Amino acid sequence: MRIDFGSAKLQWFVCGLLLCACGGGGSTPASSGLGAAADPTTQELQCQSAGWAREVVTAAGLQRLVLWKAPAAWTRGALLIMHGGGGSHTNFCVANVAAIAAQVRFTEMALTQGFAVFLIDSSDQVRDNDGRICGKVWDDEVRARTNLDLPFIEELLRRVIPAKRPSGGRSEVFLTGHSSGGYMTVRVASRFPELVTAFAPVSSGDPYGWFRDCTRLPGDRVNVAGAGFDNETRRQIVEPGACEASSYPNEKTWDGAPSATKPTFRQFHHAQDGVNDRSCVAKVRAQLLARGYPEEVPFMLDGGSRNVDAHSWLDEYSAPLLAFFASRMR
Fold it and tell me: What pTM was estimated for this model as a whole?
């Protein structure tokens, strides 16, 4: 079953928060991931004027974009942030719409505390298993083809970030991401556990236990098509209880060696999230714990009725999320 996204409230959320959340104004993407990167967007220029540096990283033949900013001394290491589906790396450095202001306040807080912050941009080239274009999302799902994002993020972890680290800077690397970026956060931490100190997925679920059907239907966002479904129940992840199952025979094989030392994780979410159901948050937690990932107790907000606004990055997450990372300093 596919849920109808035609209600005015939900259309405002997915179009206003996740599409206009690209920074507000300007419809040309910074990069499609193909060929040379485009000129900076209005939002990237705004970020640059605020002290963020723009870099183009070539990985797997694609041109990928990074915005980064750091204090003079990296006293708390590096923080890599992945935006939500339909969004942009600029969501965390300029807020031309109020709905994403909490994300910008988060990065400002991180910089003040001594983290170097790297904002990375998804491509718009992800396709589902039937070859349909999904749009501006992370390539978090396990597919038979080569992953579009893992080579890019590995390049950042192994070479780009270490090359920018000042002498005496802390070497810890922390990951977080929202929604689609949270799914990708789990994928990256499990693929490169030796390169990640700790990770904190926000409002997200299990990248090894879901799939996208990117058939475009009326009501879809301009730059994202389709919907996500749980591998076991075949239910759409917006549905209550969508990811509840007694067993997981359709879980894809996880990346990473079973014997590898695992980074600690902490989940952040709202129990009334109407976009990524709480059962999907519980599912990825169970999968991580079963594979030996150490955990700090999840940070869960609650209250009110189930709604799409509860899927947002919320100010209440920011301080405890950064405190969690600070607690994992070696």
Answer: 0.91
Q: Which two tokens stand for residue 64?
A: 């990928």
Tokens at 281, concatenated: 């948050």
Bridge partners, 81 (sequence order): 119, 176
Token readout for 65 is: 């974009």
pLDDT at 61: 84
User: What amino acid occupies position 218?
Assistant: P
**Coil, helix or strand at residue 42:** helix
CA distance linking residue 328 with residue 165, whole number of Å:
19
**What percent of the chain lies above the pLDDT cut of 70?**
89
Residue 146's pLDDT is: 92
DSSP for 210-274 reads EEEE----TT--TTB-SEEEETTT--BTTSTTTT--S--TTPPPPSS-TTSPPPEE--EEETTBS
Would you tell me how many other CB atoms lie within 10 Å of the CB of residue 4? 10
Distant-in-sequence, close-in-space partners of 80: CB < 8 Å, separation ≥ 6: 118, 120, 153, 156, 157, 161, 173, 174, 175, 176
- 3-state class (DSSP) for residue 25: coil
Question: Is residue 92 within 8 Å of residue 86, measured between CB atoms?
Answer: no
At residue 290 the predicted structure's pLDDT band, cuts being 50, 70 and 90, is very high
Contact present, 31 and 65 (Cβ < 8 Å): yes
pLDDT digits (tens, 9 = 90+) for 40-82: 999 999 999 999 999 999 998 889 999 999 999 999 999 999 9
Sign (positive/negative) of CA torsion 85, 91, 92, 95? negative
Q: Write the DSSP assignment of 170-226 as a string of letters.
A: ---EEEEEETHHHHHHHHHHHH-GGG-SEEEEES---TTSEEEE----TT--TTB-S
How many helices, marked H, and strands, marked E, lie in the chain?
8, 13
* Tokens standing for residue 248: 């997981």
